[in-house]
Amino acid sequence: MENIDLNKKRHSASHILAAAVQELFPDTKFGIGPAIENGFYYDLYTTHKFTPEDLKTLEDKMKEICKAKHPFVCKSISKQDALKYFKDRGEVFKTELIEELEDGQITTYTVGNFTDLCRGPHVEHSGQVNSFKLTHIAGAYWRGDEKRPQMQRIYGLCFNDKEELKNYIHQQEEAAKRDHRKLGVEQKLFTITEDVGPGLVLWQPRGGMLRKILEDWIRNENLARGYDMVYTPHIAHLHLWEKSGHANFYSENMFKPIEVDGQKYQLKPMNCPFHIAIYNAQLRSYRDLPLRLSELGTVYRYERSGVMHGLLRVRGFTQDDAHIFCTHDQIEKEIEDCFAFALHIFKTFGFEKYKVELSTWDEAHPEHYTGSADDWHRAQEALESVLKKNNIPFTSHAGEAAFYGPKIDIKLIDAIGRPWQLSTIQFDFNLPERFDLTYVAKEGRERPLMVHRAMLGSIERFLGILIEHYGGLFPLWLAPLQAKILTLTDAQLEAAQNLLAKMKQAGLRAELDASPEKLGAKIRTAHIEKVPYTLIIGAKEAETNTVTIRLRSGKNITVSQDELIKTMSEEANTRSLENLFK
Ligand SMILES: [Zn+2]
Ligand SMILES: [Zn+2]
C-alpha cells in the first residue's frame, strides 16, 4: 500500500517538475514523466541547455508550487478535443501519443497552470509532495529511438518524508565511497580487462590472498560440518545437460556448446549434475546418508554485455556449492544445520541484520511443478518448522518457488543498510527423478531427497559485498596485507628487514616500504591501500627494538616488537572484527 502511494507521489512530482519547467522555460515541449525507482524523471525538448544551476532554480519553483497546494484536476475529454488542445500549444510529442490512442475519452490532469495528458493516479494536491530533490540531467532519445529528436531528461528523487530522502542521499554517498570497483583498484585486489573479456575477473596478488583466506576458511567450515570435498571439471557432454534439463530450461544463461572430436561439450553453468554423477558412481545405502558433497565450483553463465558490474555481476564465478542427499527423516536436521551455518557466517563477518524469505508453491496449480504434493508439503513444513523452532522471523511467498522445489533465501543487510541476496537452501524434486537417484533402504530402494545449498553464494560476489561492507577496511584476519613497515631513512633498513622477517615467521602478512619517498607520502600510500597497521621504524625504534604504529586516526603508539607481533597474532587468530591497537 505504502509503495503504491509513494509511486503516486513520485509520478505527481514529475507533473510538478513539468509545471515548473513550463513557467521558467516556456518554449519547452514535453515528452513523458514517469515514476521510477527512488524518484521520477521528465523528458523535455528545448533549445535551452539545462545546467545544474537550472536544477536549483527549478527545485525552488517546484517548492513554490507544492506550497500552494494546487489540486490535481482531472478532466475527461474526447480524443479530438485533446488533439486540438495539445496541437494548439505545439506539443508535438503529446500529439503523437494521443494519435496512437483508441478513439474515445482521454483524461488530462492539471496542476497549477500545467495540463498533461495522463491516465493518473496522482496525489490530491501538490502539497502532498514534500520531499524531493532534482539530481541530474541526461540525454534520451524520444521513445528511445536514436533517429528521433534528442530530449533532455531531468531526474529527481522523491520519498515519503525528508528523513527518508536524507537517508537515501546519505546511503548513496556512502555507497559511492565504498564502491568495490574503485577500492579494488586502490587496494590492488582485482582487474577486469577488455582483452580477457567482460565479467571475467583477474585476481591480483593481494586479491588472490584475500580470496585464498576466504576459501580456506569456508572449506574448513564445510569439513567441520561433515561435508565431503569434491572437484569436478568445467565442461561435460552436452547430453548431461540435456538429461538434467538445463539445456532446455536454462539455455539462455548458458554459453554455446563447444565441439570436441565431433561431440558437443557444454561449459558448466552449475555444479549439480556433476555431484549427482558422483552420487550415482556408487551404490548408496541408507548408511551413507546424509551425503554432503561440497565444492568451490567455478561456473560460467551468459550475461548480456551491458549488465556486468565489477565482482557483483560476472560471467565466470566460483560458488561455494554443496548438495545434500538425505532421507526424509534427516531433512529437518540438515536444514537446521544449514541455517546455523549461515548465522555463523554472518557473525564471523560482522553482518548484524538479515532477512529470510521462504518461497513455496502455488497450491492451486500443482501441474506447474514437479514432485508430488506430499513431497512439497513435507519439504515446506521442514523449512518452516526450522525457522519457527529457531525463532527466525521470515516472510512467506506463495507461488514464488521454482518448479522443482521450495527454498529459503537469506538476504543480509550491510553496514549502510543495503540488502544482498546471499545464502540459498533449495529443495530439488526434479534432478533425483531425472537421474534416477536411489539408495538401498532397510526395505528395497528409495529415492533420496536432494538439497542445493550455497552459503556465500559466489566467492566473487561475496568478496565484492565484503569490500563494500567494510569500506575496504578488512578485519585483520582477512586483510591481504596486514601491515606495512615504513623506514624513515636508509639507516633503518636492516632493523626494518629484521622486523619483517619476524612478522613473517609469526605468520603475519607484512611488506616493507623502503623507498626514498618522504615518510608522509609513504603513510598516505598505506592509507589509500587501507592497510590495517602502518608501522614506522625511525632511529629510536631501530635502537630499542620498538615500532611506532601510525593508526588511521592519526594517533601514534609505540610498542615493543614482541608486543606488536603478539597482539596482531591474537587479533588475527580470533578473527576479531576490531583492531586491538586503537
Ligand atoms: Zn500523471
Ligand atoms: Zn545445485
Radius of gyration: 30 Å
Helix content: 25-40%
Output the strand order for the largest sheet.
Answer: 11-15-16-23-20-19-17-18
Give the percentage of residues in beta strands.
25-35%
In round numbers, the mean pLDDT is 95
| Structure ligands | zinc ion
How many helices does DSSP assign? 18
Give a short synopsis of this structure.
With 582 residues, the chain is α+β, with helices and mostly antiparallel strands. 37% of the residues lie in helices and 26% in strands. The longest helix has 23 residues, at 2-24.
Written overview of the protein:
The protein is an alpha+beta fold and 582 residues long. The protein folds into three domains: 2-169, Threonyl-trna Synthetase, Chain A, domain 2 (Threonyl-tRNA Synthetase, Chain A, domain 2, 2-Layer Sandwich), CATH 3.30.980.10; 183-232 and 271-470, 2-Layer Sandwich (BirA Bifunctional Protein, domain 2); 483-573, Rossmann fold, CATH 3.40.50. Helices cover 37% and strands 26% of the residues. The protein contains 18 helices and 28 strands. Helix 6 packs across helix 14 (459-470). The longest helix has 23 residues, at 2-24. The mean pLDDT is 95. Bound molecules: zinc ion (ZN) (2 copies). Residues 11, 15, 109, 116, 118, 120, 122 line the site of one zinc ion (ZN).
Question: What layout of secondary structure does this protein have?
Answer:
Layout: H1 2-24, E1 29-30, E2 35-36, E3 39-45, H2 52-67, E4 73-78, H3 79-88, H4 92-99, E5 105-111, E6 114-117, E7 132-141, E8 150-158, H5 162-178, H6 180-186, E9 190-191, E10 202-203, H7 205-224, E11 228-229, E12 235-237, H8 238-244, H9 246-249, E13 258-260, E14 263-267, H10 272-280, E15 291-300, E16 316-326, H11 331-349, E17 353-360, H12 373-389, E18 395-398, E19 407-413, E20 419-428, H13 431-434, E21 439-440, E22 445-446, E23 449-458, H14 459-470, E24 483-487, H15 493-505, E25 510-513, H16 519-528, E26 533-537, H17 539-544, E27 546-550, E28 556-560, H18 561-573
Parallel strand pairs: 11-15, 17-18, 24-25, 24-26
Antiparallel strand pairs: 1-3, 2-3, 3-8, 4-5, 5-6, 7-8, 9-10, 12-14, 13-14, 15-16, 16-23, 17-19, 19-20, 20-23, 21-22, 26-27, 27-28
The structure holds zinc ion (ZN) (2 copies).
